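Input for the complex:
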Amino acid sequence: MHVRGVRVLACALLLAIPALAGRPAAQQTASVRGRVEIGHVSTRRPAAAYPTRSVPQPALAPASEVRHVVVYLKDAPSRAVKPVRTAIRQEDENFIPRVVAVPVGSVVEFPNDDPIYHNVFSLSRANTFNLGRYPRGQTRSRRFDTPGIVKVFCEIHSHMTATVMIFSHPWFAVPSEDGRFELPAVPPGQREIVAWHERLGDKPELITVEAGRPSEVNFVLPVPRQ
Amino acid sequence: MRTPPRLIARTLAVTLVTVTVMLSVVFIVLTIETRDRVRAAETSKLDATEKVFSQEEAARQGDQLTMLTALAEHPRIKAAIDTYFSEMSFGGVPPDQEQSLRQTVRRQLDDLARAIDADTLALLDANGRVFLASGDARDHWPVGQPVEMFQNVAVLPGGEAFRVTAAPLRLAGDRDIGTLVLATSLDANYAQQLSNLAGAGIVIALGDRVLARTVSDEAARALVTAGAELGPMQMLDDDEYAIQPLFSAGPVRIYSLSSIDNAASGPTRDALEALGAIAMGSFLLATLGSLWLARALTNPIDTLSRDIATMSAAREYGRMLQPTGSSREIDGLATAFNDLMQGLTNAERDTRAAYVGAIRALAAALDARDPYTAGHSERVSAYSVLIARELKLAEADVDVIRLGALLHDIGKIGVADEVLRKPGPLSASEFEQIKRHPALGARILRQVPFLAPHLPIVELHHERPDGKGYPFGLRADDIPVAARIVHVADALDAMTSVRAYRPSRGTSFALEELQRCSGSEFDPACVDAICAALPTASPLLEPQLQELLGRGV
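Predicted:
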């Protein structure tokens, strides 16, 4: 839902740019495009003498790792963006999708699609909450009014985790499955574009945005092999 | 010359030296044997300990891991840590949030640490740094410090080492956000526990450093220094140790070791006590045995020696030695001695018989020179014996007198026949010739050593108590009693014998004449003796005498 919302928004902006081309205000921004690649590196194994109990994992492969990346403009001026309504489902003891990015004021729903109880809580400063336990078919939701990062967990299933990133500006994107992203109408000047990954945190790139000229920035993230 | 030692001393010495040598050998063998056994026992004890320890440790590790894996599923700890590091990487964590998150984790961790009674329950972040630690030893786990993790062992920046079990904190997508570590301090306390369990010394080493020990510092250091060259038996600080590595991980080594000297002291002392008792018994038995043996030899020998000495002193050469009954050999010796003495006695009797015969033959030859003096020497001998017996002289003296009397006139060999057989009275010079016969006889006898006892009789049988005799004119007591007896007997026979110039004067006349001259010419005791003895002389006692007397009368 959220992804679709972002795409709709992005498409609308893209369509709007040529329409606004003749207007001087439109001339003062430029889009930033790019591609995120995930390069695997060997992971450091925990020190344990005996094989640890594996956390049960769904048989399905998770969505492409690039879907756990959020590209955003750092230190951007606040600008009101229309809130959206999106959902993080609880399915096979996982939050799906694991990463969402929304503007301030958006509401995230947490429908329980599993035949078991789930719980949703967060200790994050941006939004501390506990939606309690609820069974299959029920949905509980939470509005995110503070920009920042909110980690969401299930009190019953300790491995379940999701991230909600809340922005007070429109310059953020989750790459498409082929890794491509575009931040439209970025104000010109020295800008810091950051690719955040749930394991790696922020990876910044400095670019100079010139009005009317689209910039390109690519990220290669070394993500520990799973 | 040195006096040879007593037999008993020799027996004792030999026996005791033998026993001592045997006991010494037993002592040495026993000591070595005991030590060998202790070595084997200690080695197998440590071996068994190592097996038990390995199994116990495996079981403990398994239990701890199961427990820890369950603990690592704690949702609030995971949430707090993941939130902390996510926020940290996104925009930083303000102090109040940090405190709140850490507090959340700390509370959970403290509860868990208390519940499982761990030295330390530590939470490491994804980079292996300490996020939080709980438990008694948490001060060794400073927040933010990296921990060197080996299999089952963690080495901390402060130089401490811990036995650890670790379980990852894992989130969806196999994402490890940290490690939960259950740590047991490898300190003196742990070493002591292991030592109690193993019943042996324990040394915990980190590299070439001694972390903890229950043996002496020197031994522990020597053990750590020996390192790779350790054998199952090792000299450490002048003491032999059996050594068994219990555990090895990373730079940490745990050894169990046991001092052979300590372990051997008990059994060795027991063995020596037993040996000491045996030694006492052996010495006692050996002493008694050798004393008995020596006495079994020396006692009969002493008895025989004493008997022989008594025999020698009493000149009773005919007496037989009594068999001692102690041993065949010694009785054989006694019998041989008896046979020897018997032989000697027989030989002496034969010799004596031969020489008595010779003397008699000599005396008879002498008497035969003059028909009137035939049998004179034999008769004088018989009278002399009669007197000697009456005077209660010793039998040996009687023997001397008997033979002496037979020989008393031997000197007359040197007197010319004319003088000797002259029927009439002798001239002075002839008498002088006669008077020379005692000295002459003495001179002849002096050349025959075994006739020496008879010499005084031959030389002095014409001396008179009043000093008017010849050759020396001795007085009374200066004249030997044997000579006095023979003097009386000679006179008696002379008076009772027929002479060429007169008939026999008769016995009673002769006796009266003797009594008349008693004191002056004759010894009164001898005269009294012959007067008492002659009339009652039993022909049964002295058959020869009757014959002799008959012939003489």
